Description:
The protein is of the alpha/beta class. It has a single domain (6-132, 174-223), classed as Undecaprenyl pyrophosphate synthetase (3-Layer(aba) Sandwich). The protein contains seven helices and six strands, in the order βααβαβαβααββα. The chain has helices at residues 14-20, 25-46, 65-89, 104-117, 133-149, 160-164, 212-223, and strands at 6-10, 50-57, 92-96, 124-131, 177-180, 199-202. A six-stranded parallel beta sheet has the order 3-4-2-1-5-6, with helices on both faces. Helix 4 links the parallel strand 3 (92-96) and strand 4. Helix 1 packs across helix 2. The longest helix has 25 residues, at 65-89. The structure holds farnesyl diphosphate. Farnesyl diphosphate binds next to helix 1, helix 2, strand 2 and helix 3. Farnesyl diphosphate binds at residues 11-16, 25, 29, 32-33, 36, 53, 55, 60, 71, 74-75, 78, 127, 182, 207.
Amino acid sequence: MNVPKSVAIIMDGNGRWAKAKGMPRTYGHVQGAKVVEQICEDAYNLGIEYLTVYAFSTENWSRPSDEVEALMKLLRDYMKNCIKRASKNNMCVRVIGDKSRLDKDIQKSIADLEEATKDNTGLHFTIAINYGGRDEIRRAACKIAKKVKDGELKEEDITIESFEKELDTFGLKDPDLLIRTCGELRISNFLLWQCSYSEIYITDVAWPDFNKDELIKACEAYSNRTRKFGNVL
Ligand code: FPP
């Protein structure tokens, strides 16, 4: 099987999964967070080198405040506990998105986690928090505009490559495969620049039920595709 080197996941369906069980939406997020931990190990064992997951979007702030708080608590706990696990699994963890809107203690945990794991050579695991593709591109454009204003960059030097350097994902590999769970056929503002030529795989399975077998199915579907980058084959 031709395993994708870089995989991105829209982990959708936590709320519907919980509702179907007569439980609050936040129960779905708790289960979803457990699945994240397992999938990191499974992905690396399958040969995936880069895994990026969408944990909280720039639009998710508009959810009911108790749900936002529950998600922030999960992410806060995850960042704290992840250092130990990442060291054990040799995982290099990074967070993308606008971190400035997160509580200061979460920002500190993220900085500690990124610093502690930066030299690890296993899975490159990236978590998108307060992330939106449009916002990432806007922030990159602001950085470029400032460089031009300060005379550090000339307009003619704004290329795809120089622009990419200002994106949150600089240094990571663009996704070969974008997986979305729970059936919706949307990109939902995730990695808009980076997914330009990603293969897309949608499964009806809700994120809390996603597991190694489902990941293998997604990789097999990818393996049977012929990739095209606008060229004639
Ligand atoms: C989408 O399901 C999921 C989210 C908005 C949050 C994803 C977060 C996690 C899986 C847990 C925390 C992550 C980490 C990295 C520890 P939804 O709530 O929109 O589900 P629905 O479409 O059924 O309502």
